[in-house]
Amino acid sequence: MSYITNHLPTAELQALDAAHHMHPFTTNDELAEKGARIITKAKGVFLTDSEGNEILDGMAGLWCVNIGYGRQEMADVAARQMLELNYYNTFFMTSHVPAIALATEIAKLAPGDLNHVFFAGSGSEANDTNIRMVRTYWAMKDKPEKSHIISRKNAYHGSSMGSGSLGGMTYMHEQGGMPIPGIHHINQPDWWAEGGDQTPEAFGLARAQELEAKILELGADNVAAFIGEPVQGAGGVIVPPSTYWPEIQRICDKYDVLIIADEVICGFGRTGNWFGSQTMGIKPHIMTIAKGLSSGYQPIGGSIVCDEIAEVIGSGEFNHGYTYSGHPVCSAVALENLRIMQDEKILDHVNNVAAPALQEGLDKLAEHPLVGGVNVSGMMASLPLSPRKETRSKFAGAAGTVGYMCRERCFANNLVMRHVGDRMIISPPLVITPEEIGTFMTRATKALDETYTALK
Ligand code: PLP
């Protein structure tokens, strides 16, 4: 047994990390050259690293720590649940109180007739479930050929074979033989990068109408579902023009195509409502959830399913499930997270305090010579960097070079702001205070200034 603790020197931890720990989305060279930043603890919106730096987490981890870090109540619930029932499954006619209570609470919060929850361990797993669920649904309605799923380029739906195929990131498809058959991708509604001279409204409509063209190309009788994030997150916080989702809804209604809203980032308050579908006026048949469901305190995800699909699927046996579907500790912790969100009125805080303060700060950052625009929905935002904001121009050279530089300057100034290409991404814990947003803006401005100077 090796005794590796926070007390080892950073360099030693980094060397062990590089030697034994394979990281997602990271190269060995990067790890060997720079060493990973080692996070040792966190409280509220601040992380502490192994050198004692206090870092403002402008990303809420990976868009997930909505209620902030280090909450005693969450630890207490986890400990209590581990002692009472640390594990049991939900297969073969068994259940337990944490899964029952969590499903009931989610059904209460979800809009319309989304009254049923199929639990998974993550967003990726839940989207894999969704592929099987919508195909099984149509097959059970004697339409097995209605099996194709339409998604968008540059969408992110997870990293497994199924969810990675639903995603539209070509650099992911290049590894491991994705996409799996029967998944198609239309263009995304990214007006800032791809809208040219069109108005956002005309562009949004045109991009939505690509769905109709794709349905007609495949034949409506062959199309099971359309999947989309209400606001694309990992693709660069792409807030669609106001015309986009109403047109998508019209088209899906017209051709009897199910809508899967991937709420893994948007769900649980990120856009100012419980779900991004409410913010964007979407009426989905299935919503994918994870991340903010437990604020990242335990790994849990799921699919919230409408009455009709749950009835049809349940009329036979759905041969699908995960050992940890509805895991009791994860469920109890997620339920406590939802209690805190409601008792502390975190949505009111978002809408009345945090989101207006964030918007005000971002509007100021938009005046910076390096910032080409602002995309924002509630507490998720992006700042596309540009050498000429008037024309929304891109930098010469490899995409992402300037974004990477800026991310590094953020790190150096004790701020986590991620980059997607040359866009800077912001998604802080929802509980962030105006004062902390002020600290965010000061550090972000310094990082932008330093990047700008380095580019001269
Ligand atoms: N869907 C969306 C919209 C996501 O942003 C993510 C993760 O970032 C996923 C699905 C995958 O979730 P997980 O990483 O929990 O598998």
Automatic annotation (TrEMBL):
The keyword Cell wall biogenesis/degradation does not apply. Gene3D superfamilies: Aspartate Aminotransferase, domain 1, Type I PLP-dependent aspartate aminotransferase-like (Major domain). SUPFAM superfamilies: PLP-dependent transferases (SSF53383). InterPro entries: Aminotrans_3, Aminotrans_3_PPA_site, PyrdxlP-dep_Trfase, PyrdxlP-dep_Trfase_major, PyrdxlP-dep_Trfase_small. One of its GO terms (molecular function) is pyridoxal phosphate binding. It holds the Pfam family Aminotran_3. Its cofactor is pyridoxal 5'-phosphate. Keywords: Aminotransferase, Pyridoxal phosphate, Transferase. CDD domains: OAT_like. Belongs to the class-III pyridoxal-phosphate-dependent aminotransferase family. This is Putrescine aminotransferase. It comes from Sulfitobacter marinus. The lineage of its organism: Bacteria, Pseudomonadati, Pseudomonadota, Alphaproteobacteria, Rhodobacterales.
